[in-house]
Amino acid sequence: KARPRARGGTRRKEATSMKSVTCEDGKGMEGTERSSSWGSRFWRQYLSLMKKQVLVSVRNWKSTMLMLFASFFFVFLIFIVNASVTAARENQAMFSNELNPALEDVTPIPDCKKDFFLNPNRPCYTFLYQPTGDEQIEAIVDAIKQNNDPPIPEDRVRGFSSREEINEFLLEHPESVLGALHFDKRDEQRISFVLQTNSTVKFWKGNYQDPNFYAQLPLQMAAEREIVRNLAEDSNLEWSVSYSDFAHPAIELQSVVGTIGGSFLFAAAMFGFTMQMSGLVWERETRLRQSMTTMGMLDSAYWCSWVSWELVLMTLSSLFICCFGLLFQFDLFLNNSFGILFLLFLLFEVSMAAFALFISAFVSSASSSIFVGFAIFIVGWAFQVVVIFGFPFEPEFSTAAQVIFAMLPWNLLAKGLYDLGQATATSDSPGISWSERFSYCLTRPPPPDERATYGYYDDNCVVPVGQMFWIFPILFVAFAMLGIYLDNVLPDAYGNRRALLYFLYPSYWVSPKPDHGRTIEAEAALMSDPHRELGLSMDADVLAEALRMKKRCRAHTHALEPDSSQTIESARASGKVFNDPDASTQMVDVDIGSDAASSEDNSPLAIEMFGLSKKYRIKPKYLCRGGCRSCWRHRPKLGHEPEYFHAVCGNWVGVEEGELFCLLGPNGAGKTTTINCLTGVMPPTSGDALVCGESIMQAGGLDRIRSFMGVCPQFDVQWPELTGYEHLKLFADLKGIPLSQAHSEAMELLQKVKLEEAMNACVSTYSGGMKRRLSVAMALLGDPKVVYLDEPTTGMDPISRRHVWDIIQESKKGRCIILTTHSMEEADILGDRIGIMARGHLRCLGHPLHLKKRFGTGYKVSISIQKPLYLTDASVKAYEENVEKVCSMFVEELGVQPSDRSEAYVHFIVQKERAEELGQFFSLLDDRKAECNIMDVQLSLASLEEVFLNIVRKAELENANKEGRTVTIVVNGSEEVKVPVGVETYKTESGEIFKFKWGQGESGEFILIDYERDFSGETPRSPHHIGPVVF
Question: How far separated are the first and last CA of the chain, in Å rounded?
């Protein structure tokens, strides 16, 4: 049960005796002043981030040029389409103003062979006629043929006896006749005719044929002329017919540029839109933004620098669009106000940039940005087609539809360009001036006496261009604020997110003052025991550290001590401690109230973890996406406790100033998660930690911690376009290092990590080892008091690794360093204390030598026996007999078999329980040295790797027994046997005993290396090597 908190002065006096390393007023550990004013921090970070944006864009010049000049390609396409449509219209009078149309003579009857619309594969006829056999009709037809220019050949004219025969012929021979004359002779002085022609307007590949003027009028004029001449009996009678159009204005046209310009320029803008969205998602996906935030970056500086640089690019892009339009001499660009055009394009691209920020909150990977951009273009293009046809920006449509459509920037662009295009549809159209940006748009025609005052007007219009100039900024602010809001409240890659109403909390706007008092999380950690809840045991050293840290936590939270002390012996009796015989001799009578446990309480601690925990909810595993009936039946029921995966489970650890604390563990042990919790990358589920006296759970605590913290993440977080020196300069500005020191410190660190020769080369040209060295330099930048190094030497060659070890060793003075690694040699050399984690729990803790002594299997004895100079049967037999003698001595005196045999040595593992017998055994070995030809004897403690494997194996075995996890092996050629993970020996149902060897894979996972049959009393056979088995 929870004890009441102390309120008296005695407990507070005791609490003040606990010392923590503090860092006040943003000073580094050597007193380096940091920028403390928000304004100065913001301005410096803004300038540095702007410089980064410029450098990345310039060095990625191909993408930048594509974004700026993509409009040229689409404007050129508009030019081609416009030119083709204009060429088709230029010979048609209807598309121009005709005030005094000219007279045109009716042309002669054309030859059917010259009409390419007729079928060229069959005979053609210029005209048909009926009836035949009448002398007067035949004379008229002959005159038509002879008086035409040129005369019509006889085979181009054919007569029929009746109209029905002509119709049947036309049906049987389509596309072969220009026309037909049906004469009706009433008497010698009265002759009439009916003219039959194909009235279909023909257009193909730019050739336009009007049947009225091509065949009908010439045939009609020729027939009338020859009938009149025949009746007047005057073959030389003059006959001339001309025609002209009525005077008319040009028909109303839709501007080609205004109609299709919206879609084409929208496609050009989508290049920039996709790159903007991809850039934001890429920096979030590669954790560059998280890295900069960890180094102290202000979100306001980041977003302001992004908007500023995008505004510069969009201004240039809008200017280029206007210049390209003027270059191609489009009337839309020549006759409309340049200010209206420029602002329309600029504000559209600005609002699209904010829309990209909004959409990026829902996109998880940069590679998918292209598909998202393409989908948005298809949707936008469909909306623009609807807008071009008038919906909903006409007075008869509802205001709600107009508001909804106006919320999408591409709709406004299509409407604006359509209006500007209609204002310049013909050569006499005046366009829209700046002063008319509102007045041209009318909902009804103006009175006749006022029409002269309008240069151009549209009497069926809503939402003029001038109104768009304030709708676009509203969309920009709305989309930008919504995008930033979603960026904060939607979970990131680590599942972190702010509260839905985070902007209402005063701590978001004003950094709270430092408060070194208690926190709810630390108090709750004192009341919980995850190890007992999960049924796990705890090592004696880990328990002693936990008791020490709990006492410091009680002093920090001013809580009372428990009534009864908790000792290691009582913990062992209750099953909380590993059943280790050495634990009682090394740590006895340690309780939270004794002097033994508090002897180190006064030592200053830079990092204090108070029950730090992180757990993730395990999602149900469905065969499908969870929508089928079976998945719904097996869904988690209401009221049932969900399952959790404990990545870090209630660790209590303190790290002193000047100490390098090394965390070891297989992949998934919780090492990186612990560092992420301490650095603020992800919040812990429960518990708290003090870093230089600042709580990571208090409001504003992490912001203060970041000023004296350095982090080398597990994976390199760098821009390929920036150089090593520019990276250090950028992070120096983010951390607030004085300008006078930033350059010298960057150069010093580059020299330390041996990158001074490559300092001006882009990171994209660096090798993996060079990038890791740069990450180490970035972590040590600004003389931080606390440094986290997450596998800093991964990917380095041995020489570089040794050099980085020297740098880390030198950096320990006055600093607290937490290092994670998979290299046992690295941990052994650098670590002052080592903690081995497995399954989220701290399994052991102590100096490397202490761990080897406690958890090692014993001592390793290596014997070298002289080999014969000449390989004869006798010499080889003698050598083997000497080896057998040595092995027999180990079996008889120490009871051990050879563990391994190399070309030069035979190795034996002596358990530490028989360590006292080694002195007498070595004396015996020395006496028989000459007899057995022993050349060399080596004695060493178990390696740290052996300790690590023992600890991890026990943890895996414990977890496997709890979860029932097994690994399958094959015995006797085909029989499959399942054995628990981590077991040393296993007996099958048939009585066969197998020994298993476990190890660590290249990437840190716990694997089964090989296994062998254990023949009691016989020489062990060859192992069944199966290769790494990962589980």
Answer: 40
